[in-house]
Amino acid sequence: MPTLVLIRHGQSAWNLENRFTGWWDVDVTEKGAAEARAAGELLAAKGFDFDQVFTSVQMRAIKTANIVLEAMGRLWLPMTKDWRLNERHYGGLTGLNKAETAALHGEEQVLIWRRSFDVPPPPMEAGSAYDLSADRRYAGIEVPVAESLKDTIARVLPYFETAIAPELRRGQRVLVAAHGNSLRALVKHLSGISDADILHEEIPTGAPLVYELDADLQLVERYYPSSSDLARL
Ligand SMILES: O=C(O)[C@H](O)COP(=O)(O)O
Predict the structure, then answer these.
(1) Does 141 fall in a domain?
(2) 8 in ligand 1 pocket by Cβ < 6 Å?
(3) Where are the beta strands (DSSP E) in 89-208?
(4) Is the CB–ligand 1 distance for residue 63 below 6 Å?
(5) CA of 114 relative to ligand 1 center, distance in Å
(6) pTM (2 decimals)?
(7) Residue 229 is assigned to a structural domain of this protein
(8) At CA 200, angle to CA 29 and CA 28, rounded to 5?
(9) What does this protein do (predicted)?
(10) Residue 15 belongs to domain with CATH number
(11) Is the ipTM of this complex over 0.85?
(12) Using CA positions, which residue lies closest to atom 6 of ligand 1?
């Protein structure tokens, strides 16, 4: 049975500071690194193993993947990094404090920007300090000025279908280390969640989410393994 494990990066510096991050490349905090280590130890203790790892081109996800793999004794596994697994681009909100933005624009507007299906945040202005369009890692890619969840799905899902799904179909055990909204895009697809209900789907940092799939990659079971039932093993 194909097994896919998704993990959102451990707490990042801007998760801690409550700032909109998107494509901006911030590191994990010590707490975030500890979350990733605990996730790797938990996966190993539960008997999970992987053949392939996919991640974004953002250091908080790459580091999380590496820390998980180190804890599992699997740093040697092949890892594919692709911008299509990046966090959703937060546009002109990038760098702003989420609570201050809510105080300025209202909670409701910020909820729309953060969780609506197809309303993008305001675009990033040209010349913004957070503009990554000239970053070498994005050479040849049209860096978005902002993305809604729908826009994020439009790049995450084709990547899943062309790069990840074929590996699962041939029996590879896959770990994906990515971001809150790129993983919401995958979860929406894998769990068949509606455009309206995806609003309520939150993915915690550093907690592995297991998808057991059938041969057609249809959902059999999904769960967050927990350390509390380790004693029963
Ligand atoms: O990019 C960010 O700010 C976070 O990773 C995800 O933020 P959100 O929960 O506001 O979508």
Answers:
(1) yes
(2) no
(3) 174-178
(4) no
(5) 7
(6) 0.96
(7) no
(8) 10
(9) Catalyzes the interconversion of 2-phosphoglycerate and 3-phosphoglycerate.
(10) 3.40.50.1240
(11) yes
(12) 180
